[in-house]
């Protein structure tokens, strides 16, 4: 394979051995909309414990300074610690900010629940840990604004839950960076009050929704609901009252224990509380953590609460193995294999390598995508999450089944996206020309696609091909 010139380096895919500041890249770990994450060690200390380095895609991206400011305020075991911030000078002369944080060896939350037969009390324990992290953030005036399952890692060492990706976070002194009605976030996890605000002020370009702690708690509720049911909560359609004001009936989604009878009814009630249409009914992170911790201490439950993927019927043998698993010593529990996830990672890594090796040396475009299907979910990262801070005009969260049926709209190109030539061809034969833009088709679904800023169209995820000659200055044109 022809060795790449230093001038061809792309911040989204640095090869091992690249030096960024005083750090040496060991491996590429994943990416989101605004940055890529690498496993790095100090230069000349190859055997040192690794840390995570998050590098900006765009030169002088101001999001990184705000994220560093926010993370410097946080001291909690459920949040990666910030070690350093700096700027990496690309051989072409541009400066790209970077952040260095704790490397977290963990499994994305939704993968974790699929890999481990769990009891409701174990789910309660993990949710309680996440609520405690939010309690700490909210006490400092910090709002995460993108809480979701794949911005959560469960540490392999002790089973502790860690919230990652603070690229969308905000605190009272933070600089406003986006001029949109709604702040960055993932549509399916947005609170009803945020969605109603966007409807009520759809014709007011100056209106700005200010997310608060209740928004984070709703997002945690969506995360919990999907964790135990495999579905998204679904509410009634909005309507206009007699005065023409948009309203939403307090129609609760189906209780989690109805969709999954192995879920404890008390846990189900706490999850529904987080999903209350009225934000004041959700309570505080402290109150939710107290309730969840009490459920986690319940000694009477020994019934597995594992969720069958996408609603499939549970295998009876799986239940037997689950019961046996629950009686294993704690040390053995930590040794449950995660080879399935690793196999997917290897497969997608092979696809990336094949793409990079086979492509001709075209300088004008580069595919910015994830190497590891198991390392990126909803924009999250293995080791350290990076925001898939997508926004959408979609009014309300929909279930996964409805989401699949609504992918017949042509994907809208990004500003700065590579365009087909006059003959309608893109720079590479594996790229697809759609709706005036060049796209890379990938075998991803739903939030996995969205986490890479991709868009679903007729069952296929299309990830934008960004032109190196024109750096994008905003998110997709379709966003509000």
Automatic annotation (TrEMBL):
The keyword DNA damage does not apply. Keywords: ATP-binding, Kinase, Membrane, Nucleotide-binding, Transferase, Transmembrane, Transmembrane helix. PROSITE patterns: PROTEIN_KINASE_DOM, PROTEIN_KINASE_ST. SUPFAM superfamilies: Protein kinase-like (PK-like). Gene3D superfamilies: Phosphorylase Kinase, domain 1, Transferase(Phosphotransferase) domain 1. The chain crosses the membrane at residues 335-357. GO terms for molecular function: kinase activity. This is Serine/threonine-protein kinase.
């Amino acid at each position: 394979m022809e060795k790449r010139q230093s001038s061809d380096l792309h911040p989204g895919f640095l090869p091992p051995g690249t030096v960024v500041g005083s750090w040496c890249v060991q491996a590429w770990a994943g990416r989101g909309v605004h940055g890529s994450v690498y496993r790095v060690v100090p230069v000349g200390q190859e055997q040192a414990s690794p840390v995570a380095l998050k590098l900006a895609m765009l030169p002088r991206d101001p999001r990184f300074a705000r994220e560093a400011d926010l993370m410097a305020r946080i001291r909690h075991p459920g949040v990666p610690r910030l070690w350093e911030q700096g700027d990496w000078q690309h051989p072409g002369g541009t400066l790209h900010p970077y952040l260095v944080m704790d490397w977290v060896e963990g499994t994305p939350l939704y993968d974790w629940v699929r890999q481990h037969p769990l009891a409701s009390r174990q789910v309660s324990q993990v949710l309680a840990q996440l609520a405690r992290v939010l309690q700490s953030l909210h006490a400092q005036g910090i709002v995460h604004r993108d809480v979701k399952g794949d911005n959560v890692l469960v540490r392999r060492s002790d089973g502790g839950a860690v919230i990652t990706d603070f690229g969308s976070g905000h605190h009272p002194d933070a600089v406003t960076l986006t001029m949109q009605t709604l702040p960055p976030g993932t549509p399916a996890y947005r609170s009803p009050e945020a969605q109603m605000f966007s409807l009520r002020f759809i014709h007011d370009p100056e209106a700005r929704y200010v997310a608060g702690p209740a928004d984070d708690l709703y997002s945690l509720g969506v995360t919990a609901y999907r964790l135990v049911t495999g579905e998204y909560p679904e509410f009634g359609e909005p309507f206009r009252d007699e005065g023409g004001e948009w309203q939403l009936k307090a129609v609760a989604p189906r209780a989690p224990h109805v969709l999954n009878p192995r879920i404890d009814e008390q846990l189900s009630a706490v999850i529904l509380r987080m999903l209350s249409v009225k934000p004041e009914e959700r309570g505080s992170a402290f109150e939710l953590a107290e309730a969840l911790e009490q459920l986690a201490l319940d000694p009477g439950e020994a019934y597995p609460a594992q969720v069958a993927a996408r609603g499939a019927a549970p295998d009876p043998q799986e239940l037997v193995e689950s019961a046996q698993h629950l009686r294993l010593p704690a040390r053995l529990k930590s040794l449950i294999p995660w080879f399935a996830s690793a196999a997917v990672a290897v497969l997608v890594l092979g696809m990336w390598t094949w793409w990079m090796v086979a492509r001709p040396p075209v300088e004008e475009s580069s595919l910015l995508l994830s190497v590891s299907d198991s390392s990126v979910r909803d924009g999250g990262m293995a080791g350290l999450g990076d925001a898939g801070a997508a926004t959408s005009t979609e009014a309300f969260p929909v279930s996964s089944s409805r989401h699949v049926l609504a992918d017949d709209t042509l994907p809208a190109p990004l500003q700065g996206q590579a365009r087909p030539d006059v003959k309608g061809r893109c720079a590479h034969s594996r790229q697809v020309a759609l709706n005036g833009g060049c796209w890379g088709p990938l075998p991803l679904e739903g939030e996995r696609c969205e986490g890479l800023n991709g868009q679903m169209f007729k069952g296929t995820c299309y990830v934008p091909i960004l032109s190196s000659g024109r750096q994008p200055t905003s998110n997709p044109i379709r966003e509000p």
